Amino acid sequence: MFIYTLCLFSLVLYFIDMPGENQSSRQNFFDWSHIIFYIIFPFIFYLNLGLLFPRLFLEKKYTVYFIVMVVLFTAEIYVRPFDRLMAGSRGGQREMRPPPGRDTSNGETQLPPPRDMIPGQFEKGTPNIDIMSIVLFLVTWSLSSGIAIFRQWRTTEQRALRAEADKAKAELSFLRAQVNPHFLFNTLNNIYSMAVTKNEATAESIMKLSNIMRYVTDEGKENFVDLDDEIDCLRDYIDLQRIRLGNKTQVIFVVKGDTTGKKVVPLLFMTFVENAFKYGTSNHQDSSIDINLFIDGNKLSFTCKNRLFEKNEFTDRTGIGIQNARQRLATLYPGTYTLDISQEEDFFTVKLELSMLS
Questions:
Q1: pTM over 0.70
Q2: How deeply is 249 buried, as exposed, middle or buried, from its count of CB atoms within 10 A (0-12, 13-18, 19+)?
Q3: Which of 302, 282, 279 is closest to 348 using CA atoms?
Q4: For 132-180, how does the pLDDT look when each residue is reduced to its tens digit (9 = 90+)?
Q5: Which segments of the chain belong to CATH 3.30.565.10?
Q6: From the candidate CATH numbers 3.40.50.800, 3.30.565.10, 3.10.180.10, 3.30.420.340, the one assigned to the domain spanning 199-355
Q7: Of the given ranges (47-51, 105-109, 217-221, 261-265), which has the lowest mean pLDDT?
Q8: Strand 287-296 with 249-256, pairing
């Protein structure tokens, strides 16, 4: 855009300065004064844009950058591209016709005016400063520097966004690596206890664990999975716990609402359900665990309530899993979820509400 504007500006000046010129006179457009003018400013523009400003100024090599720009500025003043352009145009014009007011009817040859009197030139001995070329140099430098700064800012922003995305991805991978082994370790311990006691439901438990492991390995690596698949995984896990605990623990798992086509973070609810079975059951007392999942459109409400039997151990050890769940929620549901964890007397309650994808 800058180069097109420069060329258009020069063309306008050229043709305004030469009214009534014939085609042969316009051939001066291709002389050296025009060629120099159309080369020097684009050269300075792209040199500063692509090399000098990003490689020197932005790299804090201010002294070298200043020296190079002074050299370019001095060379531009010495060459006087705009003054040469105007002088070449007017010189060609005066060579093609006599000066105004001179009578050439007697056949005498009229010489062009002395070179020192050509417009754009000053009398001999007077300093010749091409003001317009200086202005164009400053405009060229300002525009190229501004564009270079904008490019640098845009590149920095893009790098920051990529770094943030990579960081979030790495954090999710780390959190999943923490969740999955912990979950599988606890489940294997449950099946081991059943095998030691020769429980008839051991084979069924192994099959359910196989389903859970398949879900963890295939779907657990995704950021979002089908809500129906997540519910099936929860059912298998709860069934495993029911088999292990027997009649001492009453487990209520209720799902209400349309789950079709809904998406949710994998193994998110598993953290809270695991804690409920880990700290809400007892070998000596009866216990109950209530797990409810309600879906209303894209709104999901999850509650899990259980009695606490191991308060000290719970206070010391349960924080890691819940902290991981909070971090995953903050990363994948920014500003669209609420998580309320409360402990009243001997009961521990988790309430989670979020907006799901569909």
A1: no
A2: buried
A3: 279
A4: 888 888 999 999 999 999 998 988 888 877 777 666 666 656 555 555 5
A5: 199-355
A6: 3.30.565.10
A7: 105-109
A8: parallel
